[in-house]
Amino acid sequence: MTAPVRCVFRRNYGSLTIDGPLSETSRWRAVARVLRSPLDAIGSTLFPSPCALCGSPLPQFSSVPICDACWTEIPPHQGFACFRCGDILDQPPVEGIVSSHLCRACRLAPPPFERAVAFATYDGRLRGAIHALKYDRIHSAAQRLGIFLAAAIAQIVPAGTTELLVIPVPLHRSKYKERGFNQARVLAKCAIDVLRKSHPGLHLTLAPATLMRLRATDSQAGLTPRQRRLNVRGAFKVSDPSSVRGKNILLIDDILTTGATARAATQSLLRAGAATVQVATLARARRTLNNQPVIEAQYASMQSSSSTHQSFSRGE
Ligand SMILES: [Zn+2]
Ligand SMILES: [Zn+2]
Predict the structure, then answer these.
(1) Within 10 A of 240 (CB to CB), how many other CB atoms are there?
(2) How many structural domains are present in the chain?
């Protein structure tokens, strides 16, 4: 006997979850994917929802259910950051002392990438907006986030650079199948669209299939820096080394925590012959006092009871 199929519309922006027999699940997922985008668009246009981050009513019809006040609460990172990896420095750097511009991790074990930069700290409204895109699948948030990412990229592009091969950190195919999209690729595309207008002399080529994730790594959330390094070691491979040989690469991801993923991906690109690798992310995760990265579980406790799905243990 066939079990009944249940469709649930969650919140006001039309996410669709479906319980059904296993044999029908994949078919229904495909149907849901087709329906989701138009439902998002129609729902948010005709029935303005509360802001997905602060819950206040949206004053106008919008395809992005995040209010202007929340967007303006995402300021770019200010203060002293490690020149190499972008981590927040405990103390202000000292003029003329190069090592004081580097964090402890970069002094002890310099990363293989030239530089990493993030737009802001993975916190508050930015964390909420990334979760809205990544887990609540509010794809319309990507455009605004892409503007932030473009601002970060603009800080890191070396003077005189005219061409960059833009490579989003890939998901393993099992994770891609589960999520339905790679947020790094979506963000990279939106940022490139912004930079093509703001930096017309900079030629950015998106190469989303160049880097492959060979194995489904465990979630990085909750792991120590050492465990993170071991977790992603050898996880990446360049599909066609001739496509990166001698090229300057811009590696894109949504969040950089310890940098273990960026280091592993960079090593793979350099082994394949890339000339340089720069890394740009939307957010840089803070570390707690015991040097552990802030874990996603902390975010889960901030969620309202209306957000019912189990997305917050998934990590990077
Ligand atoms: Zn808001
Ligand atoms: Zn550093």
Answers:
(1) 11
(2) 2
One domain for residues 21 and 74? no
Please tell me the distance between residue 88's alpha carbon and the centre of ligand 2 in angstroms: 8
Both 38 and 133 in one domain: the answer is: no
Look at phi and psi of residue 31 and say left if phi exceeds 0, alpha if psi is from -120 to 50, else beta: alpha
CB atoms within 5 A of ion ligand 2 belong to 82, 84-85, 87, 103, 106
Residue 57 CA to residue 270 CA, distance in Å, equals 49
Question: Distance from the CA of 60 to the center of ligand 1, in angstroms?
Answer: 12
Q: How far is the CA of 243 from the centre of ligand 2 (A)?
A: 29
Give the ligand whose atoms come closest to the C-alpha of residue 50: 1
What is the CA(300)–ligand 2 centre distance, in A? 28
Tell me phi and psi for residue 88, to 5 degrees.
-70, 135
Is 92 within the bounds of a domain?
no
38 and 72 part of one domain = no
Instruction: Tell me what pLDDT residue 70 has.
Output: 95
Ligand nearest to the CA of 87: 2
Q: Which domain range does residue 230 map to?
A: 68-78+111-300
pTM attached to this predicted model:
0.76
In terms of domains, do 36 and 181 share one?
no
Burial of 95 from C-beta contacts in 10 A (0-12 / 13-18 / 19+): exposed
- The answer on pLDDT for 53 being more than 80 is yes
Domain membership flag for residue 257: yes
Shared-domain flag, residues 197 and 234? yes
Average pLDDT over residues 1-10: 34
Residues in the chain: 316
Ion ligand 1 nearby residues (CB, 5 A): 51, 53-54, 67, 70
Mark whether 243 and 124 lie in a shared domain: yes
> Residue 12 C-alpha to ligand 1 middle, in angstroms?
15
